[in-house]
Amino acid sequence: MMEDSRNEYSESIGCQIIKQDDVTQEGLSGLKSCPPDGLVWRLAICSSHALYSMGGAKSFAHVWFEFVQELRYRWENSLRIPG
C-alpha cells in the first residue's frame, strides 16, 4: 500500500493566502523567509531545482551531501562561509 506523497501543509497555506483579500500576519504565519543572496536562500534555490527539475529526491540528496561536505571542510579548516 503506497502512501499519498503530497504534502498536506503546502495546499492549505496556498489556499489560505489566495482566499484572503488582504494579507495578514495570520495568513503568513506558516511561511518563513531569509535575506536574498544569503546562504539559506541559495541552498533553497538549489534544493528546489534539484527536487523538481533534476530528478527528485536522489538529486536533492546529492546536493545536500555536497553541501554538508563543504560545510564540514570549511569548519575543520576555519574558513569563512560565503553568503
Describe the structure.
- The chain has 83 residues and is mainly α.
- The protein has a domain at 34-82.
- 57% of the residues lie in helices and 0% in strands.
- The protein has three helices and no strands.
- It has helices spanning 8-19, 39-53, 57-76.
- It is flat.
Task: Describe what is shown at a glance.
This protein is an all-alpha fold.
Q: How far from one another are the termini?
A: 44 Å
Helix content: 55-70%
Count the DSSP helices: 3
Whole-number average pLDDT? 76
Order of helices and strands: HHH
Could you give the count of β-strands?
A: 0
User: Using only CA atoms, what is the Rg?
Assistant: 17 Å
Quaternary class: single chain
GO molecular function, one term: GTPase activator activity
Protein name: Rab3 GTPase-activating protein catalytic subunit-like
How would you describe this structure in keywords?
single chain, 83 residues
List the helices and strands and how they pair.
Elements: H1 8-19, H2 39-53, H3 57-76
